[in-house]
Amino acid sequence: MINLAGLTGMATDASYDLTAAQAAIMGSVLTGFFAVIMILALAGYIYSALTMMAVAKRTKTKKGWLAWIPVANMYLMAKIAKQSAWPLWLLLAWIPCLTFFISPILGIIFMIIAGIASVIVMVFMYIWQWKICEVRGKPGWWAILPLIAAGLSWIPILGAVLSIAGSVWSLVMWGILAWGK
């Protein structure tokens, strides 16, 4: 028997004991769930790269293959939007976070700075998406619909639905930008 009481901090009770078979089933279910999530993530990555590459081609932006490389795809997004990519330099703020292993206090300070830098980069990504929509002749506000949906995610049940809808809209928007008229 596997006793979960010690792992969870709960009082010892027979109802928390798992047999080896139950533990194996739970492990299999979690592994299957993880596999599905990974497959969906890979499919999303491939779809995103294909759509960004197609948008780059339609806007005659060179080096569309950068859509397949993490961080470089953000550079490509800035170039499609005909904007400067300087905010991407802010991502270098994450490098000093490695000092956390040497000095935790210094590491925490660098992590706060890196977090602020990441928020700034995300703001620019939404600006770039807005500009990309305009370059493709679509309304720029399409780019912020997922952001609005995420902002309403605190509402019970409706928030979860809106968050999912925002994610789906983002995929649809990039599909329209890539292959729409």
Summarize the structure in words.
62% of the residues lie in helices and 2% in strands. A two-stranded antiparallel sheet has the order 1-2. The chain contains six helices and two strands. The protein has one domain (2-179). The model has no long low-confidence stretch (mean pLDDT 87). The protein is mainly alpha-helical and 181 residues long. The protein has helices at residues 5-8, 20-58, 72-80, 104-135, 145-151, 158-179, and strands at residues 2-3, 17-18.
Please outline what is shown here:
The protein has 181 residues and is an all-alpha fold. The chain has helices spanning 5-8, 20-58, 72-80, 104-135, 145-151, 158-179; strands at residues 2-3, 17-18. The protein has one domain.
Q: Overall 3D geometry?
A: globular
Number of helical stretches of at least 4 residues: 6
The spatial strand order of the largest sheet comes to 1-2
Beta-strand content bin? under 5%
Gyration radius, in Å: 22 Å
Could you list some keywords that capture this structure?
two-stranded antiparallel sheet; mainly alpha; globular
What are the SSEs and their pairings?
Blueprint: E1 2-3, H1 5-8, E2 17-18, H2 20-58, H3 72-80, H4 104-135, H5 145-151, H6 158-179
Antiparallel strand pairs: 1-2
